[in-house]
């Protein structure tokens, strides 16, 4: 379930960014005619600038500006020629100065993104492997993608998790030559550091271990000659097993990036034919000249004076924050600070308030952070004066609680979202005074008539849920033990239900919706580790049920408040159960709830299409055929109708035990041959209970004797159908003997017999559910696009499955 297909991922990011743009948070335009560094003007509002990554303020240094202007005057705006042929005159000067700074060979690149693309495929050999930190910058992860096409193993670990890193090293050490661990020195969202010293100790233990550090956010403000956090943490010496990236942009005040590499031969190879270094344009003369001027400052004692000035401001901001209740996610001596807001809607509100108050700050959004870990990213630079920092803190202390209140959040909810200590109980929300909320763990605690009047449209009516409770509890293995939560929210004054739903808490395979190739690979590993890449999930509805799992009475004008109260209740359950994901399903693709769910920290994920059939008013097969399109009619006449006479068709309610066993095997056949929806197998107990429950029946296909050589007939296909008391026929599961399935079109015949049976029993609708929508549509079903809304505790498994998929596609 965790896997989001690439286009779906892009659609999700587009929605997140578009929403933030509409709110006036992203894609803004500065209106300044001249920059000073400590202010910026947006929409006519001049604000103190707390969003820069020029931490030392060198981009406004007169020496750098003068050097850039003189370079333009001398050499023009660009030097339009590949460096493979010739570099413009200032390049060699800059390279020599950077080599002196790092005391090692260097490679200059156009920017860090192109630099990673040039260096990583050159440095990493075919016999190597790569391990990515979960939070390493996107530009590094993107540059790693081509390695998978070469068959290079690419793994991922949770952020700064050294135990997990060591486990991966142990798995790989006998299979590959070098193992590259790729991480940031200073992480750009929370401002936390890589555990460099501990990592170097690990490389002493495992000599195969090499490091690739992206230290662009640690550059200049830290280290000897401003060479960054990583090199300082290594004592100023660059080992041969480390490649170190710094930037000439951001704090350095110019443009471009720099790789430091103690291996002179590797440095030569990268410089000679490293991808974009060969085929891309070189840095403009103005950028190189500005970088030369900045390098002079870095090579002088002045850099330490600048570092100390920034450090004083960072320490001052940290001291001020420590005297507040603001949720600083990671306290570090870095210039990057992150104040958690939890949901995007709270983040929007807080940022807008701060901008209106005269402070420009950035919003941290998905996919840079998990969507429920939205927050305000504040950066401190030398341009920021102490009195401005004081005013910033005062404004945050004033506006933060008001942003929470206006968006129905609380400090406790935010702290729980970031797994920070909660010092007191959350105060009851005002909506609890308007609504009465009932949460039960047994369907028997809710009157049958009441539940069915609200939720009785599918197999999750009252009787259906009683059946699931009976069969999916008290079993021997974890995947077959489900927990249910039934929630009703009523208007306190009238007692009329405003909202109803149910949730299940159960074990899911993380690759449930991943491509078949990913699931096949994981299933091989699950033969040794049955619960590899599985997670507990709190889901609206359950894996057994499909359809409208949420009832909303929109005649009540406060229904949105009831829905927010439901989300708060789900959040309480999440804190108690600690699932890896919360999933709200199944909604129409164009639901008007999209914005509300997104603002509350859920991202939209496309689900497999659902199929329903509500045209059951025909009386004869000829009338049914006439209701189909001409193409579907031809398909039916050729691929379905002629095969019906080859079967004996039975409708069973009670089935002998040995026959139930055979039906179960047919179900397992289908499940094992269909990884398009990869779930755990249901227990045999569920199928045995179906035979005892009057709500279920079996449509069974037997081949006529002349078509098979068996002493006694055996079913070759079975449809497991639920008879909803409100007029919906639900074919929930299917089983087939694949020896006969293709030759006799068993699946298509089961679909057709389901349609005939539903019509015979006078049902008004068939809910065919998800998967195989192409086949169902050809028999007259209506295909309905469906989406779910997902809230993951972190993005780790999303990205890990993405890496697996890309690797398999090589």
TrEMBL record:
One of its GO terms (molecular function) is transaminase activity. It comes from the Bacteria. Keywords: Aminotransferase, Transferase. Residues 50-395 form the Aminotransferase class I/classII large domain. InterPro entries: Acyl_CoA_acyltransferase (IPR016181), Aminotransferase_I/II_large (IPR004839), AON_synthase_class-II (IPR050087), PyrdxlP-dep_Trfase (IPR015424), PyrdxlP-dep_Trfase_major (IPR015421), PyrdxlP-dep_Trfase_small (IPR015422). Its cofactor is pyridoxal 5'-phosphate. This is Aminotransferase class I/II-fold pyridoxal phosphate-dependent enzyme.
């Amino acid at each position: 379930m965790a896997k989001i297909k690439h286009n779906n991922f892009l659609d999700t990011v587009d929605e997140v960014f578009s929403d933030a743009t509409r709110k006036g948070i992203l894609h803004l335009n500065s209106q300044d005619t001249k920059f000073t560094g400590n202010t910026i003007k947006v929409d006519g509002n001049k604000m103190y600038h707390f969003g820069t990554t020029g931490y030392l303020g060198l981009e406004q240094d007169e020496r750098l500006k003068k050097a850039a202007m003189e370079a333009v005057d001398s050499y023009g705006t660009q030097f339009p020629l590949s460096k493979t042929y010739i570099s413009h005159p200032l390049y060699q000067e800059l390279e020599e100065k950077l080599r002196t700074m790092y005391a090692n060979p260097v490679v200059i690149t156009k920017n860090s993104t192109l630099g990673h693309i040039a260096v990583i495929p050159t440095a990493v050999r075919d016999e190597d492997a790569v391990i990515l930190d979960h939070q390493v910058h996107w530009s590094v992860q993107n540059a790693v993608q081509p390695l998978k096409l070469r068959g290079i193993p690419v793994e991922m670990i949770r952020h700064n998790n050294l135990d997990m890193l060591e486990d991966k090293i142990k798995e790989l050490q006998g299979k590959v030559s070098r193992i590259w661990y790729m991480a940031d020195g200073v992480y750009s969202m929370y401002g936390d550091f890589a555990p460099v010293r501990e990592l170097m100790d690990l490389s002493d233990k495992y000599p195969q271990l090499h490091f690739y550090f992206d230290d662009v956010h640690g550059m200049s403000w830290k280290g000897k000659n401003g060479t960054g956090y990583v090199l300082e943490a290594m004592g100023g010496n660059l080992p041969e097993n480390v490649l170190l990236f710094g930037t000439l942009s951001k704090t350095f005040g110019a443009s471009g990036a720099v790789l430091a590499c103690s291996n002179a031969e590797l440095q030569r190879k990268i410089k000679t034919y490293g991808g974009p270094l060969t085929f891309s344009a070189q840095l403009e003369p103005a950028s190189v000249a500005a970088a030369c001027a900045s390098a002079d400052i870095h090579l002088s004692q002045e850099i330490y004076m600048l570092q100390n000035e920034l450090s004083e401001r960072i320490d001052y901001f940290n001291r001020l924050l420590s005297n507040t209740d603001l949720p600083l996610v990671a306290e570090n001596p870095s210039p990057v600070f992150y104040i958690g807001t939890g949901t995007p809607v709270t983040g929007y509100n807080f940022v807008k308030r701060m901008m209106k108050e005269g402070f420009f700050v950035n919003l941290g959004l998905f996919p840079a952070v998990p969507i429920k870990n939205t927050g305000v990213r504040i950066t401190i630079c030398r341009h920021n004066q102490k009195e401005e920092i004081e005013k910033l803190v005062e404004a945050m202390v004033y506006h933060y609680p008001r942003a929470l209140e206006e968006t129905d959040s609380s400090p406790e909810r935010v702290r729980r979202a970031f797994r920070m200590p909660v010092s007191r109980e959350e105060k009851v929300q005002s909506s609890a005074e308007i609504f009465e909320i009932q949460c039960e763990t047994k369907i028997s605690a809710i009157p049958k008539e009441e539940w069915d009047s609200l939720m009785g449209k599918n197999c999750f009516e009252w009787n259906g849920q009683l059946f699931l409770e009976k069969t999916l509890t008290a079993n021997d293995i974890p995947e077959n033990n489900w927990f249910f939560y039934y929630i009703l929210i009523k208007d306190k004054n009238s007692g009329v239900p405003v909202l109803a739903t149910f949730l299940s808490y159960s074990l899911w395979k993380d690759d449930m919706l991943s491509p078949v190739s990913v699931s096949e690979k994981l299933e091989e590993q699950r033969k040794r580790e049955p619960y590899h890449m599985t997670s507990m999930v709190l889901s609206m509805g359950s894996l057994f049920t499909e359809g409208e799992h949420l009832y909303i009475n929109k005649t009540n004008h406060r229904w949105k408040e009831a829905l927010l109260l439901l989300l708060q209740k789900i959040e309480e359950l999440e804190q108690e159960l600690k699932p890896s994901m919360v999933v709200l399903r199944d909604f129409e693709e164009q639901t008007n709830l999209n914005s509300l769910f997104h603002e509350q920290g859920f991202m939209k994920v496309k689900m497999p299409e659902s199929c329903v059939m509500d045209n059951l008013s025909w009386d004869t097969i000829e009338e049914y055929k006439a209701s189909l399109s001409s193409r579907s009619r031809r398909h039916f006449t050729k691929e379905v109708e002629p095969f019906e006479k080859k079967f004996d068709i039975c409708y069973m309610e009670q089935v002998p035990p040995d026959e139930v066993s055979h039906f179960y095997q047919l179900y397992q056949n289908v499940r094992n041959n269909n990884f398009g929806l990869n779930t755990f197998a249901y227990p045999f107990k569920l199928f045995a209970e179906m035979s005892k429950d009057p709500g279920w029946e079996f449509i069974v296909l037997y081949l006529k004797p002349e078509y098979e050589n068996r002493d006694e007939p055996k079913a070759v296909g079975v449809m497991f159908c639920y008879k909803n008391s409100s007029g919906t026929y639900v074919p929930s599961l299917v089983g087939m003997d694949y020896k006969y399935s293709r030759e006799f079109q068993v699946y298509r015949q089961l679909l057709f017999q389901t349609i005939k049976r539903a019509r015979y029993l006078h049902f008004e609708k068939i809910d065919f559910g998800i998967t195989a929508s192409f086949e169902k549509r050809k028999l007259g079903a209506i295909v309905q696009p469906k989406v779910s809304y997902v809230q993951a505790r972190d993005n780790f498994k999303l990205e890990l499955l993405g890496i697996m998929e890309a690797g398999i596609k090589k």
